[in-house]
Structure formats: structure tokens, C-alpha cells
Amino acid sequence: MTISLHILSPEGTLVETRAELVSLPGVVSPFTVLPGHAAMVTALTKGKIRYVENSTEKFLPIREGFVEVRDNQVEVCVEV
């Protein structure tokens, strides 16, 4: 099972893919989203978004943002 990942910035879509997991720099602490994760909305802080796509680890540095997780979908809006 995979997660639908969309990462957007004011400039446009940065990432649109299916991922096996997504790790995000939450303001309280970093966290990882796996398939079946509980619904949540939270703020993100400066750091790197890490995701695994087709068994390949990828990174996207960000300054800040927000994420919504629901129904195996991760929607992220960030400043890069």
C-alpha cells in the first residue's frame, strides 16, 4: 500500500507521486506517515521532507509549511 503525496508551494507543484512513507519536520517533533495513518493537520518547521518512492529515498528541504493527512493522502503546502 502507498500514500498519495502532493507537495505544493506558491510557485506551483513540487512533488506529485505515490510514496511508501513520508517523514516531515513537525513543529513539535519530526514524524513519519505510513499507510493507514490517523487524520491530522499540523504545522511544519525548517527541515527536510523525506519520502520513499519506488524504494528510492528522496529529500526536499523546506523553510516552513503545513500538512494535512487523511485517507492515505498527504497534502503539503510549503515555502522552499
Q: How would you describe this structure in keywords?
A:
single chain; 80 residues; mainly beta; 5-stranded mixed beta sheet
Commentary on this structure:
The protein is mainly beta and 80 residues long. Helices cover 0% and strands 71% of the residues. The protein has strands at residues 3-9, 12-19, 21-25, 30-33, 40-44, 47-53, 56-62, 64-70, 73-79. It has a five-stranded mixed β-sheet, with no helix packed on it. A four-stranded antiparallel β-sheet has the order 4-3-6-7, with no helix packed on it. Strand 1 (3-9) and strand 2 form a beta hairpin. The chain is globular. It starts with a strand and ends with a strand.
